[in-house]
Each structure stands twice: as structure tokens, then as C-alpha cells.
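User: Fold this; C-alpha cells only.

Assistant: Input:
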Amino acid sequence: MFISFEGIDGSGKSTQLVLLRDVLEQSGSTVMTIREPGATLLSESIREILLSTKQTITPTAELLLFSAARTQLVEKVIEPALEQGTVILCDRYVDSTTAYQGFGRMLDMESVKSCNRIATRGVMPSVTFFIDVAFEQAQQRMQFDTAAGEPDRMERAGREFFERVREGYLAIAKDDPARMVVIDGARDRAAIHDDILRALRDRTSLPL
């Protein structure tokens, strides 16, 4: 089973991933948690480049770097884990590229889709949770997160960018309702967690 979590920066998706991991492990599932970009040496190295504030990266170069990190992750980590029956919880996946580089950076969507097809090798999550919060609330959460440190290159993109990204996620969810579950992220974490568990009970056979 492959489950991904999506949302703009500060949405709380990473917190919800951890809460779900704990429930699944307590229920006896073998769980792997990964992040994008990351989880391999190459992908983590690309992550450092992408998030660094010390350089400028063009939107197209950004798209290709995310895609390179993803295909390494799919081939080296996700596909082998799925073959072993592991439950994979992924903090961001291909929908981030569509939302951030397609809608946010306003790149040609056909080019984005082509990169996504190559990078994923057809491997898609069974369920994707989009934790939907307004830009202002996401910013407030990030300001109160003392462990987060200074904003990275992506987090500094600004209101208009993140509003396009959010609209992009909503458009993806509208086009793929069988996979995408939109969760109201404006509430407290317990209520969000309950909604996620309820959706998984309805859509999967996971022991929850």
C-alpha cells in the first residue's frame, strides 16, 4: 500500500503522516516513511540543492531536479518496498510537482506531465491526502514552529505562488477524486487525524 500526503508548506501534512504511521505500526503493519525529495543519497543531495537559498534555480531546472530525485526514489526504494508488502507513507510525491512547478511556476503542463510519467514509472499512491489550509494559516503555523529554522528557497516563494499551488492541488483533486482525499486542515490535528483514519477505513483494507 502506497499513501502520500500533500499540502502547501505549513499545512501540517508531515504531522499527520507521523500520526498515521504510529497507528499502523500499533496495528501490526510494516511501515516505511519517506519524504520527497529524499530517502536516497542522490535524492537527499538534490534536496539540498533545491532548498538552498544560496543559488537561483530556473523553473525548468527545478522541474528536472525534482524529477531526477523522484525516479531514483521510485527505483531504489518505493518499488522494492511495495514488492515486500510494506506500507509506504510518503511526505509529498508527484502531485507536488504538478502543483508547485505546473501551477505555481506556471510551466507548460504537458511538459510537467511528461516528466511525471518518466519519473514515477507508473507507480502511483493508492490514496493521497491533500491537507488544505489557507496561505495565512500555513504561514502562522510555520512562524510558531521553532524547530523549522529559517525559510528555505521554496518556502520564500510568496503569497501569489502558494495560492496558485493551493488551487493546483484542488484542481488535481477534482480531476482524480478516486485517489485524492481533500482534508480540511484548518482544524486541530486530532480532528484531521480522525478524518484520515475514516477515509482509509472506507477505501482500504488496512487494519486501523
